[in-house]
Fold:
Amino acid sequence: MKSDRATLTAKRSIVYVLMIVFTIIAVVPIYLMLINATRSNAQINEGLSFLPGGNTMTNWKNLTNRNFQIWQGFSNSAFISVCCTVLGVYFSTLTAYAIHVYRFKGRNFLWAFILIVIMIPGTLSFIGFYQFMAKCHLTNSFIPLIVPTIASAGTVLFIKQYMESILSFELIDAGRIDGAGEFMIFNIVILPIMIPALAAQCIFSFVGSWNNFMTPFVLLSDQKKYTLPMLVQTLRGDIYRTEYGSIYLGVAVSLIPILVFYAFMSRYIISGITMGSVKE
Structure:
């Protein structure tokens, strides 16, 4: 018994040490970025420092005084990210629900097609996607940044696998017996059960959309429609070549919505893990 306890304690200690090491690896770069956002160019060129500087306001003035429309970028990125997250997660969940619950011709083919789409890199179709948007006269618009995210094969795969593990057909049958329509069953009965999975996918979708740089960079030409990552990229131009503190501050500001959104949605993941749909 003592040897088993000693072995268990040793394993736990190893796990805790690894968790601490991985946490440090993940946190230190972000911490250094925040520290450099408060330092001047001369201080940054001197090397690494774990102590904050006093140049934050100067770096902020460099951002706001040189045509860095940060609030415009915030609003554009927030609008695109929220629309992509809501539409993509909802319709992907609806697709996964249809494939999992209903039996129809072509169901297996559709599921295989979704799996194939996941394995195809998105960069292969990017040129064709741009040409198609150009022919539809949808360039320099938010539409091609939002509408295609409705078809998210990765989200469909995740949601379907989650449904297979927790969804009971008894709930669906009970809703039908009570006279509820299919969409009412999905919206009122199924979605609340899927909260943990939906919250996880919302985080992934929001972060991916917020950090997306290449697609807006290719499609958007009007500076008023620039997203925040695009504005941060402009800080690397000739004017900001030596303004490293301003660059770090711009990157740090762009991370704030991601952290806030993650903190808001993560509590739904934690609170929804213990949710049960059917009690026997």
In short: Confidence is low (pLDDT under 50) at residues 274-280. The radius of gyration is 24 Å.
